[in-house]
């Protein structure tokens, strides 16, 4: 799956950068102590010494789901449907008469890539899970507690910020607030509420 490959590439890049940084420091120490047993070209040495010095590791954009989905979810943590929080997200979707296969979900790490996907998909509604996703997309600094459960707009598309399922596992008292927010989403989309 594409997201697995991208995640693996991210891990490899991070580890590779760390190895090069460590090797660069090693060469620097060797040079300071007068050990010159390693002969590498000046170009190679410049490359090693400069690797990662002025650059940050690029944020990776992960996603899954149909490109035609009317519901677009932005996940602050990027776990999607995995683990306990992913299981809880599946339960929330089932309660909304939806399934993971019916929504498009992505992480919030690269907001420019998120914006491009939103433009390409043109969903009916966007749900942001967690503070990072809501604040980044809406470009606001207010705490999630203040924006959660209220509709906002992004390029003419309704946005519903709410708490991340991982928070609900730690603080179950927030479940009612999330469910109330999802009922607003259901009403907006014309989905049947059996609760």
CATH architecture of the largest domain: 3-Layer(aba) Sandwich
Give the CA-based shape: elongated
Largest sheet geometry: 6 strands, mixed
- Let me know the average pLDDT: 85
CATH class of the largest domain: Alpha Beta
Q: Determine the strand fraction and express it as a percent band.
A: 5-15%
How many beta-strand runs?
6
Essential attributes:
8 helices, elongated, 2 domains, six-stranded mixed β-sheet, Uracil-DNA Glycosylase, subunit E, single chain, 13% strand, alpha/beta
Q: How would you describe the overall organization of this protein?
A:
This protein is of the alpha/beta class and 195 residues long. It folds into 2 domains: 2-50, no CATH class; 63-189, 3-Layer(aba) Sandwich (Uracil-DNA Glycosylase, subunit E), CATH 3.40.470. The chain contains 8 helices and 6 strands; from the N terminus they run ααββαβαβααββαα. Strands 1-3-2-4-6-5 form a 6-stranded mixed sheet, sandwiched between helices. Strand 5 (152-154) and strand 6 form a beta hairpin. The protein is elongated, with a radius of gyration of 22 Å. The two termini are 36 Å apart. The model has no long low-confidence stretch (mean pLDDT 85).
């Amino acid at each position: 799956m594409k997201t697995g490959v991208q995640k693996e590439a991210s891990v490899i890049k991070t580890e590779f950068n760390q190895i090069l940084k460590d090797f660069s420091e090693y060469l620097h120490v060797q040079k300071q102590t007068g050990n010159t047993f390693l002969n590498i070209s000046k170009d190679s040495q410049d490359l090693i010494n400069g690797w990662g010095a002025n650059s940050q590791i690029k944020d990776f954009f992960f996603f899954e789901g149909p490109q035609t989905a009317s519901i677009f979810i932005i996940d602050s943590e990027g776990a999607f449907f995995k683990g306990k929080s992913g299981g809880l997200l599946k339960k929330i979707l089932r309660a909304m008469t939806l399934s993971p296969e019916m929504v498009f979900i992505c992480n919030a790490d690269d907001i420019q890539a998120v914006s491009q996907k939103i433009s390409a998909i043109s969903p009916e509604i966007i749900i942001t899970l967690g503070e990072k996703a809501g604040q980044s997309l809406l470009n606001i600094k207010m705490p999630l507690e203040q924006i959660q459960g209220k509709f906002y707009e992004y390029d003419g598309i309704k946005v519903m910020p709410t708490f991340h399922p991982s928070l609900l596992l730690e603080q179950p008292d927030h479940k009612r607030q999330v469910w109330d927010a999802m009922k607003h989403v259901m009403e907006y989309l014309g989905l049947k509420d059996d609760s």
